[in-house]
Amino acid sequence: MAFPGVSMAITREMLRVKTLPNGAPADAAQIEKIGSNRMVVSLSTKNIEGGTTVKTSVVRGRSLPMTLVVAAMICEQIQKWGAMNNDNAIKGLTDAYEDEVRNNPVADPENDWITVYTGGEPVFASRKSAVLDLIENLARGRNVDAIIEAASSRMQKPGHQVTLEFDEQLAFTLSETDHGAKTAILDRMFGKAGAMRFVLAWDKMKGDRTRDKIIALRCASAIAEGSALVSEFNRLTGKIQTDSSLKSDPNIIDRIKKIFARVNAMQARIDIISRQRELDVTPRKPNFMGMLEYIPGMNLKAPTPAPAPAAQQAT
Questions:
Q1: How far apart are the C-alpha atoms of 145 and 147, rounded to whole Å?
Q2: How confident is the model at residue 7, as a pLDDT?
Q3: Is the per-residue pLDDT at 315 higher than 80?
Q4: In this structure, are 26 and 50 located in the same domain?
Q5: What is the domain extent for residue 62?
Q6: How much is the pLDDT for 301?
Q7: Looking at residues 276-302, what average pLDDT do you find?
Q8: pLDDT in tens, 227-264
Q9: Is the pLDDT higher at 43 or at 262?
């Protein structure tokens, strides 16, 4: 799927692998569903001849926020090391990912998995998938729908018919305008279908648009994650309001406290960017803390936010 005028995009994909024994009725097929978010990250870098070379990597992730964050990390490593297929860049990405997970009280790396591909090969993976590895080995940065037929042929096995079905929809875009990096988050916002858009003005003093796009990706990730967590927080407190016995459930209370801390951190990330840079959000800049539905008597205190990653700082 091509998106004219868009320099970065995330598609939400669903792959269905249907395996049917020869001669068996259609309803006997085994179906494996693999859902993920996918972004092709392409950056121009200087080469030794003085020209430019486009370096491309692909990031796949279970959630939109983590996919956005890792896309920003890939941009940082390509900008620093020139490509993702070298040991320094892979170590840098690994360290940055582990820091992100370690500092996130609601992190679930087992389920919120990430895989990064360069040249069709996985260079970083928090979880393996033979099907996705095959897809990316064939696609090599191209649109997936162009290689589905070839992938289906490669997946055939004796005594069975294997069919690969593919659907995708747009989840995020980043476009370059004269004024700044224009983004659209096309996701469920606060539990409802919708979209949030913002424009991050270019830093004309530094003139580094790649760095500006990294900041935009991190800002989008904070908005997407904060939105999802506000919905989960309010769902949990709503259950307690309905059934007061749940207020003594240590697992629910611990989850609420961890969500509260993470929502506060996401709000802080957005606020830091909006204080230091011109950030125009449509319909409005989110106020996550003001959207939380609290339980009377529950002692929730916002911790002091940790320092933002260097790429988030606008100065």
A1: 6
A2: 84
A3: no
A4: yes
A5: 8-176
A6: 66
A7: 86
A8: 999 999 999 999 999 998 888 899 999 999 999 999 99
A9: 262
Note whether 50 and 118 are same-domain residues. Answer: yes
Indicate if 172 and 76 belong to the same structural domain.
yes
Last residue within a domain, chosen from 176, 207, 236:
176
Q: Which residues, 6 or more positions from 68, have their beta carbon under 8 angstroms from its beta carbon?
A: 10, 39, 172, 217, 218, 220, 221, 224
* pTM of the predicted protein model: 0.90
Count of structural domains within the chain? 2
Question: Rounded to an integer, what is the distance from CA 13 to the centroid of its chain?
Answer: 13
The answer to whether residue 299 sits within a structural domain is yes
Closest CA to 204 of 274, 277, 269: 277
Phi, psi (degrees; rounded to nearest 5) at 212: -65, -40
Mean pLDDT of 203-228: 94
Give the burial class of 227: count Cβ atoms within 10 A of its Cβ; 0-12 exposed, 13-18 middle, 19 or more buried: buried
Q: Report the pLDDT value the prediction gives residue 82, as an integer from 0 to 100.
A: 87
Would you say 185 and 216 are in contact if contact means Cβ atoms under 8 Å apart? no
Residue 259 contacts residue 233 (beta carbons within 8 Å): yes
**Which has more pLDDT, 168 or 303?**
168
If asked whether residues 248 and 273 sit together in one domain, one would say yes
The answer on 184 and 148 residing in a single domain is: no
Average predicted confidence (pLDDT) for the chain: 89
